[in-house]
Amino acid sequence: MEKSKGTQPRAQWASSLGFILATAGSAVGLGNIWKFPGKAYEGGGAAFIIVYILIVAFLGMSIMLAEFAVGRRGQKNPAAAFEKIGHGRGGWIGKLSLITAFIILSYYSQVGGWVLKYIEGYLMESGTIYADPTGYFLGMLGSSGMPWQSAVIYPVIFLAMVVFTIIRGVEEGIERMSKILMPGLFLLLIVLTVRAVTLPGAAEGLSYLLRPDWSKLSFQMVLVALGQAFYSLSLGMAIITTYGSYVSRRENLVKHTAIICSLDTVVAIMAAFMVIPAVFAMGVQPGMGGSFAFISLAEVFRQMPMGNLFGAAFYLLLFLAALTSAISLLEGPVAYFVETFGCDRKKVTCCFGIALFALGIFYTLSQAYLPLKGIWFDGANGLIFPPFGDFMEFLTDRLMVPVGALALCLFVGWRWGASEASREIEHNGRFPLRAIWIAMVKFIAPLSIVVILIGGLVFGLA
Ligand code: PFF
């Protein structure tokens, strides 16, 4: 089935389940498990969760459907799909999104490497982590204490897994991998959540999450929820478009989109119920910084009976989530090169692996090594996130993703035409809530994205 060059048939998902698990695999990632719990905590528990669900149900689902529609109608990589539907115009939207995916993957794979190191760390040397969580984290990044090799080797192993999966193709690689990894992820998440909510002292965290604190409802909180929903659903990066191009015309896009968005949201909420009660029970400050998952959680596992095993299981969960998301981020750029320039899939994937590593390693090293050399380290405040990482995240999350998503909505809503696009979405002639979808794609989604863009750029929100 796997073939995409010239006139040969395009790769397709072998089954609906494979398609759902692969796309859910893209959506469920570090964003759900690492970022969502802290945001839910800061956003007033259930108040944030309710706002988030509403955003996913209306905006998130609408944009995901629009992306799927472009992919399935185009039957090509994102750049070519936009160009084909836009009669020669709009290819830049796909290209921009692919560049965004490449940049995000360069640092996503570094964090994937850190997670791998922590699985080993909790199994082999949990005492060292507990003794000095910050030192262990910085050491892993190459500053001191630990051999610098771990800063390089683990991201390489992570990237190698991504490259290996992509080389094997859509059905044999991505789909098969998702069918193995995703059930494992759900199982682990259930076990860890049950453990967390039954810890002595977890009730306080549970009631914090369940009681909506509406005093936290603000413009900023809604912006944070919007940004989180886009990131979590993998929108604005042409990934959903790419995966949509492998979907057969028989599949019901509305139903599948609803399932994928629900799965992603359920995982995020469960992750909040896993992290927040445990953090409350152990008296740890549920901080939000990027180092939270690596530094603050050490205290939780230290106090927990068999904490090192639960620690290893937690990082395994993060690893599974990160791997399937990283795989999706690489498929789009690879498909583009294979289809546009006739490149060999294997060679182009390996080249991407090397380029991603070369760019990403600056991210890891800039977290600790360079700062400690006195370049970006603020002695008074301890660990600060340095310019390189900040710059990359700013560029992608605040600028490129919203611009890509805005362009997508305007393209589908106005250039392609929402009613024409809705014909791609309908199944057996039916498309429930078609009118609402059209209003969303033409007016409400573009407006909301403009607000995110301005909020993110001017006010530094989201
Ligand atoms: N959705 C992933 C997460 O929540 O971590 C991140 C991501 C993957 C974003 C793939 C975008 C993407 F195309």
UniProtKB/TrEMBL annotation:
Pfam families: SNF
InterPro entries: Na/ntran_symport (IPR000175), SNS_sf (IPR037272), YocR/YhdH-like (IPR047218)
Primary localization class, coarse: membrane
Keyword Membrane: yes
Coiled coil: none
Localization (cell): Membrane
Assigned keywords, A-Z: Membrane, Transmembrane, Transmembrane helix, Transport
Membrane-traversing stretches: 12-34, 46-70, 91-108, 148-168, 180-199, 219-246, 258-282, 312-338, 350-370, 399-418, 439-462
Topology relative to the membrane: Multi-pass membrane protein
Protein name, UniProt field: Sodium-dependent transporter
